[in-house]
Write the structure tokens for this entry.
Amino acid sequence: MANERVSEQVFVESSIETMDTALFNFIKNDLRLYTVRSGEQEKVPILWSSAERAYQIKKTKELRDDSETLIYPLLTVYRESIERDNEGFPFTPGSNNFPIARRILPVETQKFANAAARKKFGVSNRVFDNKKVVYETLFSNNVISVMASYGITVKTSYLTDMNQILNGFITANNYRGVKLENEGHTYYATIPDQFSFDKVSENLDADERFFETSFVIEVRGALFPRIENLDDAVIKSSQNAVNIKFNKERTIVGATPQIRGGAKSFVEE
């Protein structure tokens, strides 16, 4: 609206890497996955699986034994896919802006309340039901809603370790959705309801005996463009119109009031 006062605030970028880090930190720090060995807790190593990370694993000796075999338990995270998810996102019609917050501005609202109280009661501090409330709504511009799928793979040498690790995911929240936060942004992860064992080594003579399970966690969120690449990558805040006045035609041409009430009768609210 033309009569709205608009201000802008710079917003921190939300990128694919920001979303990746949010999930990785949640698994590493919030879930606190441990296994118990000889009465002592051991933290489960969590690795981001990529070409660069695969090279680091080979060079990280603490993750391998003398025969260069990976030491279990081990949990890996990998982003399998990412896609746009515009259908389930509250965009403003005709644009990709959506409201993210709304609050009452007490100072501006008090001004309207005082003016109305003086007009009705002759005093400015009278308590009454004030209908003229000023709200400030924050809108984010140029935002893309996405859904990313992350593959989680867990390998252990013992069934007890596998049970302890999966228990951390199953009890992460009473509901399927879990809120993730990183650099001021919020994402929502969906943990599956069912976990199954993909591979179980039952051959006691095998050189490597392990239990393996894999599942997918879906993360939904919004991506904000880089500030350097787009001037409109900001948060816009606008205030609603509380009082709308229409002047009569006679006030436009400068006519002199000829009735009681003076110029006030030329203004209608």
User: Anything to note?
Assistant: The radius of gyration is 30 Å. The CA atoms of residues 225 and 231 lie 10 Å apart. The helical segments are 16-30, 51-59, 106-121, 159-170, 249-252.
